[in-house]
Amino acid sequence: MTIFPAIDLLGGKVVRLREGRRDLATVYSDRPGEIAAGFAAAGARRIHVVDLDGAFAGRRENLDAVAQIIAAGAPLQLGGGVRDLATCARLFEAGIDRVVLGTAMVKSRAMVAEACGRWPGRIVIAVDARGGKVAVEGWAEATELDPFDLAAEAAEAGCAAILFTDIARDGTSVGPNLESTARLARALHPVEVIASGGIASLADLRGLALAGVPSAVIGRALYEGTFTLAEAFVAAGAQ
Question: Is 97 one of the catalytic residues?
Answer without folding.
Answer: no
